[in-house]
Design a protein that fits this description.
Involved in both the arginine and lysine biosynthetic pathways. The chain contains twelve helices and 13 strands. It is of the alpha/beta class and about 350 residues long. It starts with a strand and ends in a 16-residue tail after the last helix. Bound molecules: NADP nicotinamide-adenine-dinucleotide phosphate (NAP).
Length: about 350
């Protein structure tokens, strides 16, 4: 049994980490920190957990939390992890970071995508990108894990097989649609119900921060320098992401070769499903089909008119896009069954 702490446990990702880890047979949640809710029962911030735990939030600093457990999950905003992780990394504790602070291998990517110089560049090489299906081998010997961004996860999962099989002949163009929980629990005018409801808002037509990590991972997989562009939209949904990516090819691809690329990479993966149904309502991935689960649903289509492969992915941003990938990665790091605590069917949102 391993003991864990969740720092930033009052947030949306912290809440999902709590929900899943409280049911995990190999771990004990010992500390859940919150500055705003310190001393309150966990179910005050996460009413869905009433009856599942009598824990209260603590106001431990991340370093104090780290001194009490085997593994710390950092579920705090970008720029906040970096203030604590360098000291925590010397304490012997294992760290799973949900923020972007350790996702890049190359320190030069931080000024480009986040606008700041990385203050602890030596640590970047010690973190493993927490995408189990692509980094399983490195995760087995990891001590520090950096969990991918949510839109990055859906994009990379859906394009990676095409990158590996050499299909990426030009710039990859991603269209992303995301629900409101993607921006966390801190309210703003932009997330106010009256402003967000009934709206399809293109909040990032270009230059989205996740492009950097998508390029990083697709370049590693393909062995070439991959260029990506993306437009991201917030849509009328609380949870879920749909990414529709255009991969342009020089020669018209054969459908069998594309299938082979996906099957070779994901044929045995427990959390990858293919949604390619010739009939019915759900012919392709739809976030509605994955909510509440750790699945990534994938599909593709061929656009012969302009020699384009359309790669489709959908996830629950808070699970396969955050807490689920974090726990799956931890399971691998600790030598647990990779599926432990994660094999639940999605909700049927009807
Ligand atoms: N939401 C998603 O879909 C998603 C997906 C993938 C990754 N992530 C990443 O996961 C992390 C958490 O995201 P979230 O959506 O759960 O955010 P959130 O709902 O805003 O929660 C973050 C929590 O961190 C604490 N916090 C806020 N500002 C802080 C600061 N400056 N220093 C220390 N703690 C602070 C807050 O708790 P107290 O003030 O009570 O301590 C808050 O509840 C972020 O890095 C985010 O980018 C999010």
């Amino acid at each position: 049994m391993k003991t864990v702490a969740i720092v930033g446990a009052s947030g949306y990702v912290g809440g999902e980490l709590l929900r899943l880890l409280l049911m995990h047979p190999e771990v004990e949640v010992k500390v859940a920190t919150s500055q705003q809710h310190a001393g309150e029962y966990v179910f005050k911030a996460h009413p869905n957990l009433k009856g599942f735990t009598s824990m209260r939030f603590s106001m431990d600093t991340p370093e104090e939390a780290a001194s009490k457990v085997d593994i710390v999950f950092m579920a705090v905003p970008h720029g906040s992890s970096i203030e604590h992780v360098p000291e925590m990394s010397e304490m012997g504790v294992k760290i799973v970071d949900m923020s972007a602070d350790f996702r890049f291998r190359n320190q030069a990517d931080y000024p480009v995508w986040y606008g700041w110089e990385h203050p602890a560049p030596d640590l970047l090489q010690k973190f493993v990108y927490g995408m189990p299906e692509l980094h399983r081998k490195e995760l087995k010997s990891a001590r520090f894990i950096s969990v991918p961004g949510c839109i990055a996860s859906s994009s990379i999962y859906s394009i990676a097989p095409l990158a590996k099989a050499g299909f990426l002949d030009g710039v990859v163009v991603i269209d992303a649609k995301i629900g409101s929980s993607g921006s966390g629990n801190k309210p703003s005018m932009a997330t106010h119900f009256s402003e967000r409801y009934n709206s399809v808002r293109i909040y990032s037509p270009s230059g989205h921060r996740h492009i950097g990590e998508i390029e990083q991972e697709l370049s590693i997989i393909s062995g070439t320098k991959v260029k990506v562009t993306m437009s991201a939209h917030s849509i009328n949904m609380v949870r879920g992401i749909l990414t529709t990516s255009s991969v342009f090819v020089e020669r018209e691809p054969k459908i069998q070769n594309i299938w082979n690329a996906y099957r070779t990479m994901y044929g045995e993966e427990p959390f990858v499903r293919f949604i390619m149904d010739p009939s019915g309502v759900y012919k392709y991935p739809d976030p509605k089909l994955v909510v509440g689960s750790n699945f990534i649903d994938l599909g593709f289509a061929i656009d012969r008119h302009v020699k384009r492969i359309v790669a489709i992915g959908s996830i629950d941003n808070l699970i396969k896009g955050a807490a689920g990938n974090a726990i799956q990665s931890m399971n691998i790091m600790e030598g647990f069954d990779e599926k432990e605590g994660l094999m639940m069917s999605p909700m049927r949102l009807v």
